[in-house]
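Lay summary. Proteins are chains of building blocks that fold into shapes, and those shapes determine what they do. In this project we predict the shape from the chain. Here is one chain we studied, written as its sequence of building blocks.
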Amino acid sequence: MSKLLSDKRVAYGLILVGFVGGLLSVLIDPLRGEDIYLHVVQIIGVVLGLVMILAGAYLTFMYNPPPAAE
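And here is the predicted shape, written in a compact code that computers can read:
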């Protein structure tokens, strides 16, 4: 598990998916041609996107896995 968390591609993927998901949650109404009104599901999407961005940022900048014991 530590090897998976230390892979930077996973962290960058979390940041990217969180950003796109949060942005899409906010912009889905204008894309459909309606006024911006955040429904409960859209707010949950924004919060989950923010959590994913923060988790990816933590894995990128703060997480230091312990050295592998051989």
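What the prediction tells us: The chain is about 75% helix and 0% strand.
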